[in-house]
Structures are given as structure tokens and as C-alpha cells.
Amino acid sequence: MSTTGHPAVDEAPQVVAEWLNLLCDDLDWQERGRAYLLLTEVLHALRDYLGVDEAADLAAQLPLILRGIYYTGWNPSKTPEKPRSKEAFLSRVAAPFSKAPLEDPERAVAAVFDLLRRKVSMGEIDQVAGAMRGPLQALWD
Asked: Which Pfam families would you find in this protein's record (predicted)?
């Protein structure tokens, strides 16, 4: 495998694979494609529920490829999104799973939040969770 000599670039695919494997293990899923879709949808919903500064602070701590996924399609002028209820967040995340619905969207989102808690600094997670509305904050616990 050719390398660029830049660890963040060279290791990026393995880092994404690790995150997806952890998410599959946490949810007892076999399909990494499903885990990728879940991770993407939660990252996008989270990004859009945060203010611009906090969204950028979180992005700065994501691995290279995941940072690119996080920013894909972002329109900062439309954030934070409204309404920002727990129900709207869960519905947004669950919507792309119409062919094979999520059995428990709340558990799925909580699994991604737990993964972020393990991979992002605790200070940043505290700031992100604190920026969420009360019922959404509970998913971080």
C-alpha cells in the first residue's frame, strides 16, 4: 500500500473501519453499511442541531474521513435547525431506514453518542451534550 507519509491520511480508512466495527459490536449488527448510514445520519443531525461554533469544534476532533462526512451537505446559515426536539432528531435519523427500519432509534442514536464519547475529548462531549435540549441530553448518559 502506498503511503503519503501523513498518518491522518494513511490511517483514515482503518479509523473509519474501527468506528464502524465498534458501532456494529455495540448494536449487535452484522451490516457495516447500516452502521455507516446510522453514523452519517446521527453526525449530520447532531451537526445541524448545534450552533456553528460548536459544530466546528466537534468537527475538529473527528478523524479525517469522518470530518468530511460530517461536513457533507452542511449549510451553516441554516443551523441550528428548528425544531430541535428529541422526537424530531430521532425521526430525522430514522427516516433513511424506511426499507429496514431501526428497531429502536433511541438506542441506535445513544450508541453513536456513546461511540463519540469514547473517541472525542470529554470536554468537547460535555459542551456538545450541554448544547442539546434536555431530552436529547439524556441520550448522552
From this structure: DUF2267
Please give the Cα distance from 21 to 1 (Å, whole number).
22
Number of domains the chain contains: 1
Please, are residues 27 and 59 in contact by the beta-carbon 8 Å criterion?
no
Which of 73, 123, 69, 19 is CA-nearest to residue 59?
69
Query: Is position 6 within any domain?
Result: no
- pLDDT one digit per residue (tens) for the chain, 141 residues: 557 666 666 677 888 999 999 999 999 999 999 999 999 999 999 999 999 999 999 999 999 899 999 999 999 999 898 878 999 999 999 999 999 999 999 999 999 999 999 999 999 999 999 998 788 888 888
Q: What is the DSSP string of 80-106?
A: S-S---HHHHHHHHHGGGSSS--S-HH
What are the grid coordinates assigned to 62, written together?
473527528
What is the Rg, in whole angstroms, of the alpha carbon atoms belonging to the chain? 15
Residue 7 lies in a domain: no
